[in-house]
Amino acid sequence: MSVEETEETPEIEAGVTVEDEVLETLGDTAQDTEEHLNADASVVVRPDQVQDTLFALRDEMGYDHLSCVTAQEYEDRYESIYHMKQYDDPTQEVSVVVPASKDEPISQSAEPVFRTADWHEREAYDLVGINYEDHPDPRRILLPETWQGHPLGHDYDQDSPQIVTLGEWDNPLRDDHVDNEADTMFLNIGPHHPATHGVLHVKTVLDGETVADVDPDIGYLHRCEEQMCQQGTYRHQIMPYPDRWDYVSAGILNEWAYARAAEDLADIEVPEYAQVIRTMSAELCRIAAHMLALGTFALDVFGDFTAIFQYSFRDREVIQNILEDLTGQRMMFNYFRLGGVAWDLPEPREEFFEKTRDFLEELPAKLEEYHDLITGNEIFQLRCVDTGILEPEVAKSYGATGPVARASGIDYDLRRDDPYGYYDELDWDVITEDGCDNFSRVLVRMQEVEESAKIIEQCIDLLEEWPEDDRTIQSNVPRTLKPEADTETYRAVEAAKGELGIYIRSDGTDKPGRFKIRSPCFSNLQTLGEMSEGEYIPDLIASLGSLDIVLGEVDR
Amino acid sequence: MSSDNPIDGGSTDMLTDTRDARMGEGLDDRFNSRLREAFGSSPFILTKFDKFMNWVRGSSMFMLQFGIACCSIEMIHTYAIKHDLDRFGAGIPRASPRQADVIIVPGTIVSKFAPRMKRVYDQMPEPKFVVGMGSCTISGGPFQEGYNVIKGAEEVIPVDIHVPGCPPRPEALVYGVAKLQERIANGESSPVVVKPYELEQFGDMESDEVVDKLADQIDEDTLAMRYNWADSP
Question: Where's the NADH:ubiquinone oxidoreductase-like 20kDa subunit domain (chain B) (predicted)?
Fold first, then answer.
């Protein structure tokens, strides 16, 4: 751990570490410091000084990205951790640790500083049971309103019965500002609706054809991913679950998030050869995920169930075939292992390379076809250009990442900014667009497919040339991993939808003490209201499609 | 015309002969399908009406467009270009439950979603059939131990066909749908084997600790579902 610490603390000026600077900025607010493997500084602050601390860090030191809020319960206290980063340089990380008392777990809300904290704190309240003062909307978010207890708290009894209501005609405007004269209409979109990309429920209030209020209601696919990971052993039992977070064939990208966090926690090296395979397979997944985003978006925007939707699924089939050759599975790959990958490329290798190269060769022509059909289409342009505007400052406040952020001109890609795998050795570009609208988000995804293809091609060149006696696919990892107790880390990778981060705290056993997933879709979905309020209802559907959410990852 | 040729003992020889005589030799035989072989040129089919209806139901199923989780991606692939479920007469998905005969349940069902799924199932017209896709709809699958996960679709609605896998390949789902068609054609449907979780009015629920606690939050006539996790398999 001490080795890590010296490595990870960049010297700003001679002798002055980031931690010193942070402590100087915060002055008396900082009560204590902790050690998080990822962060340059972790400060402990009092629960009533959260806002002051975050304001100071944001405005004076430039930590403008509240990546994640982790809540957990210890034997003697509750704790919320605010993982902060900088959009300009995500390797600059600071954790703000806020303990709260066991009897009265009350902590100040960070919502006035970062709007993304809204949902994150609701989730913390829902699952762990910390109350946030000044929170604008302190409700449960993932579990039904009528749920009893907080399932990730210590004294939760999983066998106690629960009652869930079906109240589908609830009008969210009825309670607050009752106005019988108002000419608005309440509309439920989902949870079973073709345009919601899964089981999302959007409570919408319409004024004529204009959206007056949007309240995404999530939790229809909350299948306890964090609990599952906390019950599994590091070495074998956790890896299958990441595949099921973002399930649109982006499994390997998710596995990488867990692998990165756990490898950081247990200090495991990954052989270079395995890194190349990881990079290649991850980018294949990214193409598959973006293809689905493209197809379903076209389906949303001009109801094209025939051409584009089917074309994109045709291309996904090709990728799934390649990935099946590599991993043995079409969707739930379970291919990564801590310290490498499960097995080498399939034999005969030439055949695999040829198959992949064939796909890459055909890709430009296919993309051309998509551009003809989608981005060049007048109806599509009318629907998407200048609709669903997301200003960069708003996007940052909501913690938006991935293509959603990059389409708002935020140049943020963890593959380049916080390099992992083999990305920094390869030649590729980060795509950004300045349009901030639905059209830009589509453009970013389509161009990212090209960049991914470039990465895959270079990886294949490398793998073809790789000397036969140097093909180590896994480093030597003990059968049972027991990282030192109270080691904490938060590591993120660039998944298909954005920054997918994992916080792990070890408790000295072979299972994590706390496993928290920071899902990019969860943060991105929060911007929906911002994008669609005051717009027409069809634009709401287009905006929702362009966010490209996956409910498995939103709800976890 | 052909009614002059009575069918005797199931043999179609005479009909075939007649047809051959009419067509003469050297003709295109693409019209000689097996159906024609069986029926000759007779316009009559003798069958029981319910048997006929079962055959029709099995051969033209309207599926409900219903995506839940990971399996729905494989389900889309089954509908889409390579596997094309439509080849088997299982149609393009319908967006409204009122137009659908079959619901494929593709994914994990959690406490918040089960009442909604029950409602969607109730909205489908009879006769209706259910295909449970994936391990989650069998037992809760990999999430079986989760605090929020229903231990299988059968806890909520009766299921006719279970397709195992996580997720099942499209081929497996096609096989499951084909099996369902076979069952429908044979007039079979699934008996309800467990007492499912039901939607009931909150006022009708037996009083216990949870009900008492929620009494001031929930209206008497609100529909609700009670999960007895301790009794779950």
Answer: 70-180
